[in-house]
Sequence to fold (254 residues):
Amino acid sequence: MSASRPKLTVASLTAGFGENAAIRDISLELHANAVTAIIGPSGCGKSTLLRCLNRMHELGAGAWVKGGVRLDGDDLYGAPVDPVQVRRRIGMVFQRPNPFPSLSIFENVASGLKLSGMPRKDLEALVQSSLEQAALWDEVKDRLHRSALALSGGQQQRLCIARALAVDPQVLLMDEPASALDPIATARIEELIHELKRRLTVVVVTHNMQQAARISSHTAFLYMGELVEYDRTEVLFTNPKVRRTEDYVTGKFG
Fold:
């Protein structure tokens, strides 16, 4: 594990809906400028954990959270904290591309900036910068004012990444960002993740263990709502300390 101060600290986190806990007593430290993968079988709590990191989980009906999440030492669940500001600091990209259907490519990226009252003259430069960071600018610079729905699935996902990057987050959460994409588009997303970690902390939920091995420096394995093991990716995949981890990564169940 890195000796540097963690970017995100999760402490005894338990969360669920109604009477059911989806994750239980999870504690881990996520490192700055690194990619952390969260793996585990379907229904093990991966997406719930991810959504707790930027307080999106509480938007669900009957949702509840206990425990703590800190970003650079700041308690994200503290009483005076505005969840909207948390989501600006910790952006999120979902499994399926979700561009705003009634907005152009430009307006999709600019939407969060406009809500903050940014002048139009400043928008253009930031939209271009965000699209460049998402490796999409060269493909769309001549059609910025066309519908975002005219883009391919892979381009739409990179557009959603650009939209998340536009508000300058410190952390980017990605919930199976390539699972709906073809292999070529998936490779572009993985290349982009490698680039983004130079500036951001990235946390990726993936069902694809080969992908986790390719993109991440650390991996957390969840099973039935509990954190079974968390370590450097190469260690967790080649020399896990827990038998259940070994059984999962070698395909004995899943």
Notes: The radius of gyration is 18 Å. Strands lie at 8-17, 20-30, 35-39, 63-71, 74-75, 90-93, 171-175, 201-205, 218-223, 226-232.
